[in-house]
Design a protein that fits this description.
CATH architecture: Orthogonal Bundle
Radius of gyration: 30 Å
Shape: globular
Number of domains: 1
Structural class: mainly alpha
CATH topology: Lysozyme
Strand order of the largest sheet: 1-2
Number of helices: 11
Order of helices and strands: HHHHHHHEEHHHH
Strand content: 5-15%
Largest sheet: 2 strands, antiparallel
Helix content: 55-70%
């Protein structure tokens, strides 16, 4: 019994000694979190959050863009291969009227579809990843304005002075995508964009010519490039 008591006393004293030694040891400073460098920062996350929202957007929009792009690409190849075919004369004339161009060269510039990565990125920006009222109520992916009372449209919540801003209302997402491609194909604001896409399919070079799509100009093109790169939309091209 006495032997057991001595052992317990020894264990108790040893424990007190270890506690004393630990308390007297110099304490190291806790490691500070590593600062995020400019390269590591991901500005797109500040603009668009929630991966679930992005996934829902992609499931809705990407198939529509793929389908429209395939149709436009087939049309471009068909016209390009038959630009001098007299059997196509009437069809080519109608297309020139539709795209408001005069020459064969201008028509081909208008018809050639630009990379899908750009179309997806612009849809994401303009519709806030499918969360905008214009998209939910009017299938308007790209914030396209309406200037005709004869077409379906909805009013924007904001005005410019006393002027109401109207946006086009589409019957489907595909219809919105198709009209977007047509708009970039014939608007005088994107003439340089059309010229460049005949020389390159590089989305990062092409978006630089879309500064007139938005009032924020150059910042808009930089944001587009960031979205394409961060979300790897270039894989769709």
């Amino acid at each position: 019994m006495k032997y057991l008591q001595n052992n317990l006393s020894l264990i108790f004293l040893t424990t007190l000694l270890l506690i004393f030694i630990y308390d007297t040891l110099p304490k190291s400073e806790p490691k500070k979190p590593k600062p995020v460098t400019a390269v590591e920062k991901k500005p797109v996350e500040n603009l668009f959050k929630l991966d679930g929202k992005k996934e829902r957007f992609s499931n809705l929009v990407v198939p529509a863009i793929n389908k429209v792009y395939k149709e436009l690409e087939a049309q471009y190849e068909d016209i390009s291969n038959n630009i001098d075919n007299y059997h196509y004369a009437k069809k080519i004339l109608n297309l020139k009227k539709s795209y408001k161009v005069r020459t064969d060269k201008e028509l081909l510039m208008a018809l050639k579809p630009h990379p899908k990565s750009i179309a997806i990125a612009q849809a994401a920006m303009e519709s806030a990843w499918g969360e905008s009222r214009f998209f939910k109520e009017a299938n308007n992916l790209y914030g396209v304005w309406s200037f005709s009372k004869k077409e379906p449209r909805i009013a924007a919540s904001q005005q410019r002075g006393n002027q109401t801003i109207w946006l086009k209302q589409y019957g489907s997402i595909e219809e919105s995508v198709r009209d977007y491609y047509i708009t970039l194909g014939r608007s005088s604001a994107f003439r340089e964009f059309r010229k460049l896409k005949m020389k390159t399919n590089d989305p990062y070079k092409l978006v630089e010519k879309l500064d007139r799509y938005s009032e924020i100009g150059e910042k808009y093109t930089k944001d587009l490039s960031t979205i394409i790169r961060y979300n790897r939309f270039y894989l769709y091209d």
